[in-house]
Specification:
The protein is α+β, with helices and mostly antiparallel strands. The chain has three domains: 108 residues, Immunoglobulin-like (Sandwich); 189 residues, no CATH class; 148 residues, Schlafen, AAA domain (Methyltransferase, Cobalt-precorrin-4 Transmethylase, Domain 2, 2-Layer Sandwich), CATH 3.30.950. The protein is built from nine helices and 30 strands. The chain is globular.
Length: 489
């Protein structure tokens, strides 16, 4: 059996011709569930066992980020991360780096010294003694959330568990003057553009820190360094999977996908010297690959289909292409424009103003050069994600988890666009993991039968700069003639 916690989980078995058979069984593991709340005892046990079982290192690398208030000159806690790895400060003094109004403190703690949840909380608050001159009470903790991420995630290159420890402390108001950046670290030779950039560089923390109020964050990151999917290539009908640990004996991978005719293909293949190549006989349009150890422990997962892409590049379209070739980080930095639109959230109800804005933008892109619409990004280019509205708005539906709600949301948008735009405009949907937040990327192709319009209002729009405007009559007539002739659009 594979994976963790008290869950019904798949195990693998090979049938005739390498066909994959999936069974389910109850299983337990010293590690943590892929998602959900966990007990404090389970977290402590995982921290103590991870160095040997996950090759994760024997020290908890603690990094804390503070910001100084201009009026009171007091330091306010923004985030603390504890990453399991090899010691970088053993035998050295605690690191304390000041970048203007931002302060970064570091300390390494052996995992054997973390034996209780109270002890862990004390270690996460170790900076109190340096900054405040005293240790505050850290004996309480709220719900503890555990999430597993495959390789190439926002936290680590390898698969990892990210555990968030919550407290009863709400949002803390703080004066953001002087916190805009940039922040220079001459000693280490880098310059961060803003607070979020400092968090990514120093803490490995992918969350955005931009508002004038903040909930102090505390995370434990357990890296699984046993092995992961290093590369996947598909040439024609052959799929090649490469492991990061070629000398790790007995690795298996399972392949599950659908070809262009909708036929399912399932295989189980053993890696030889870290490489497995299988000829599926057909070109896949959406593969899912799992990597297992010899005793059927899950190591890593890669997934690519219509709604989801695990990595920042496509296996099926390695040269890029409109659906997966967009550099999202650069897109956010450049802001909205002729081919880019940001939406913090789009409701599925057609009568909502934001829903009508979606149809307007699809039509405007369709009548122009096409474009990319990102849902989960506000007007300022800040990634806010979609998890909270998905969990809140779709809570009444009988959907088991966030992934099911993401799929349901995409189907709702597809239905709204199909019913609300005419003639047909091609839109590709991709879920993208950006700085630990799920963003839905819609790539709109130019309409093949211009001009298109919003059906219930007969609105013919076109994209000009960063706005959607109504087509003028001469533009409408010219677009109509060109789409029905051999003239270039």
């Amino acid at each position: 059996m594979v994976f963790v916690g008290e869950h019904v989980l798949p195990t693998i078995a090979s049938g005739e011709g390498g066909q994959l058979t999936v069974h389910h069984a109850w299983g337990t593991s010293p590690f943590l569930p892929r998602s959900g709340t966990i007990a404090s005892e389970a977290l402590i046990r995982a921290i103590q066992l991870a160095p040997g079982a996950l090759h994760a290192g024997s020290h908890l690398q603690l990094r804390t980020m503070l910001i100084r208030q201009p009026a009171s000159l007091k330091w306010v806690h923004l985030a603390t991360t504890g990453t399991l790895g090899s010691s970088t400060a053993a035998g050295k003094d605690v690191t304390d780096v000041k970048l203007g109004t931002v302060r970064i403190l570091g300390n390494d703690v052996p995992t054997e010294e973390v034996s209780t949840i109270q002890g862990l909380l004390a270690e996460l608050s170790w900076w109190h003694g340096i900054v405040l001159g005293e240790h505050s009470d850290t004996a309480t903790v709220g719900p503890i959330y555990s999430s597993w991420y495959p390789s190439r995630n926002a936290w680590t290159p390898c698969p990892c568990w990210v555990i968030q420890l919550t407290t009863g402390v709400g949002s803390l108001s703080w004066d953001s003057r002087g916190a805009e950046g940039p922040f220079l670290n001459r000693a280490d030779g880098w310059c961060a553009t803003d607070l979020s950039d400092v968090g990514r560089r120093v803490l490995g923390y992918p969350g955005g820190i931009t508002a004038s109020s903040v909930v102090p964050q505390r995370y434990i990151i357990l890296s699984d360094s046993r092995g992961w999917i290093d590369d996947i290539r598909m040439v024609g009908t052959k799929l090649t999977i490469t492991s990061s640990r070629p000398r790790l004996d007995g690795q298996f991978c399972t392949i599950d996908g659908v070809d262009l005719d909708g036929e399912s293909h399932k295989r189980i293949v053993e890696l030889e010297e870290g490489i497995a190549t299988v000829d599926l006989g057909r070109t896949l349009r959406g593969p899912t690959v799992h990597l297992f150890t010899q005793d059927e422990q899950l190591l890593d997962r890669f997934e690519e289909h219509e709604h989801r892409l695990t990595w920042d590049r496509s296996v099926l379209q390695p040269q890029g292409g409109s659906a997966v070739g967009v550099d999202l980080t650069r897109t956010l930095e450049n802001g909205e424009g002729e081919t880019v639109e940001f939406k913090e959230w789009i409701p599925l109800e057609r009568h909502e103003a934001k829903s009508r804005e979606l149809l307007d933008t699809i039509v405007a892109f369709g009548n122009a050069k096409g474009g990319t619409l990102l849902i989960g990004v506000n007007d300022y280019g800040v990634c806010v994600g979609t998890a909270k509205p998905l969990m809140r708005i779709l809570a009444k539906k009988d959907l088991p988890d966030l992934e099911a709600r993401r799929d349901s949301y995409v189907k709702g948008l597809q239905k709204a666009i199909a019913e609300g735009v005419s003639p047909h405009v091609s839109v590709a949907f991709r879920w993208r993991d950006l700085d630990g937040q799920w963003v839905l990327q819609l790539v709109v192709k130019p309409c093949a039968d211009k001009p298109c319009c919003v059906t219930d209002t007969d609105r013919f729009l076109v994209r000009k700069g960063a706005t959607n405007r109504m087509l003028k009559r001469p533009e409408f007539e010219l677009m109509f003639r060109r789409s029905r002739s051999d003239d270039p659009a």
